[in-house]
Amino acid sequence: MSIFTTFSKSCLGLILILFLFFSTSSAYSQGRLYYSQTELEMIFSYADLSNEGQSSSDSPVRWSPVLNIHTHYHFDFNRHFGLFTGLGVKNMGFIASYPDIKQRRKHRTYNLEIPIALKLGRLNKWHFYGGYSFEVPIHYKEKLFLNGEKESVRRHWFSDRAPRLMHGLFAGVVFPSGTHLKVQYYLNNFLNKDFETVDLDGNILRPYEGISANVWAISLNFPLTKNNKFYYQKPPTYQASLNY
Description:
Elements: H1 3-23, E1 28-29, E2 32-51, E3 62-64, E4 69-76, E5 81-98, E6 103-121, E7 127-146, E8 149-157, E9 166-174, E10 180-186, E11 197-198, E12 204-205, E13 211-226, E14 229-230
Antiparallel strand pairs: 1-2, 2-3, 2-4, 2-13, 4-5, 5-6, 6-7, 7-8, 7-9, 9-10, 10-13, 11-12, 13-14
């Protein structure tokens, strides 16, 4: 068993324990604030892209306003320090452009995401957060354009064209309104270099063997509901008697 597999299982176990703990905790527990929040996300992404088979390649920015929705479970230990985890669905991908052969490919996956992060700052106003996320691709889509015209589209559920598990680091800043700006970097390749298919003559092909694509994403996140009620711009209320 690889170190990454062991680490992944350990983190998933920790997240499960946190979910169980949060689900059985009251909103206030010994001066700590617990709440859930559902958010919509608008993502701008591109890739650190290289292709051994092409003399030139670049990755234009991809905009994905839908469908990105997350529910996060927050646990604030005091006014300045907390953590959150949760579950989300996100539309992640990148565009690969090869000007020399007038070819462009758009790669996209819908992912189930589980983040875990720490929060630091004035939690009812400006604050920062950073953490680590697991993502499981559940649907893969790839579009091929030649000379600006769409040539083909591939769609697959749980495709081997993408890795079974994506993971990355993220950091962000939360504004007093609750809107926040996030930057995320994926640590593994977006495409599965070992994926194999066959052509019409029965020859084995590895279409992604020479491609390296680590995705960067910058996103704006907008609160939708808080504790199952529509979000409003009033910061969390802390008990006045608490001494932090």
